[in-house]
Amino acid sequence: MKDQFVTYEIALRLKELGFNESCLGWYSIYRKNLSINFGYVILENLTKAATLAPLWQQAQRWLREVHHIHIGIWYNTLTSKYRWEKNLIGGEFTDSHDQEFDTYELALSEGLTEALKLLS
Question: Model-level pTM?
Answer without folding.
Answer: 0.83
